[in-house]
Amino acid sequence: MRVLVVEDHAELAGSVARVLRRDGIAADVAPDGEEALRRAGVVDYDVVVLDRDLPRLHGDEVCRALVARGGATKVLMLTASGTVAERVEGLSIGADDYLAKPFAFAELLARIRALARRAQPPLPPLLEHGDLQLDPGRRVATRAGERLALSPKELAVLEHLLAAQGRVVSAEELLERVWDEAADPFTTTVKSTINRLRAKLGDPPVIVTVPQGGYRI
User: Phi and psi at residue 104, in whole multiples of 5°?
Assistant: First the structure.
């Protein structure tokens, strides 16, 4: 999953991004509405967490522009006002969900994941391959009944590969969907993560390297 956090309060934006990254979600940050639209024109985000009161371009205008572009991106609007009228207005311009400040990070994370599930083709509640299982909701992976000690990033890579259902996934796709803009595309980040994941999954191997193609399960 890849999320764009649009928030002009730098401390709050940084806190939200850190929470998402700790949970294995790739998170980019935009400080204003114009930058948000620029980034959304380059990356197909699953969810845009959008502050309503933004400088340079109001959040309402950003939301309308995102909706007009079409696509599967979902918009979660944030605002300092939690009145019914504010919520109705935000939803009426195309937001998919609405959350008033201050909010609990756990609720924000749950709402983002719920929206992301709506943005993607439906997946089974349990992703499986042989004796390997991953529960996306609980963020738990097991093999032969034993829980695997995976980092959030390793879990995200495994989820993406299992969700591909045998399709070859390129390193570039993994970099775009699992990592955020801070990742250097010229490093061995993806390969290193795959190698660590393979070691933790054990034998027999389940991740296959396809020469000049990528990886698949």
Answer: -85, 135
Domain 127-216 matching CATH 1.10.443.10: the answer reads no
Give the right CATH number for 2-119 from 3.40.50.2300, 3.40.50.300, 3.40.50.11750, 3.30.70.260. Answer: 3.40.50.2300
**What's the pLDDT at 121?**
64
CB-based contact 32:8 (threshold 8 Å): yes
CA distance 163 to 161: 5
Model confidence, pTM: 0.68
Least confident among 27-36, 59-68, 111-120? 111-120
- Residue 72 DSSP class: S
Condensed to tens digits (0 to 9), the pLDDT of residues 101-134 reads 899 999 999 999 989 877 666 667 789 999 999 9
Distance, CA of 194 to CA of 47 (rounded, Å): 25
Backbone angles phi, psi at 48, to 5 degrees: -115, 115
Alpha-carbon distance of 147 to 133, in angstroms, equals: 9
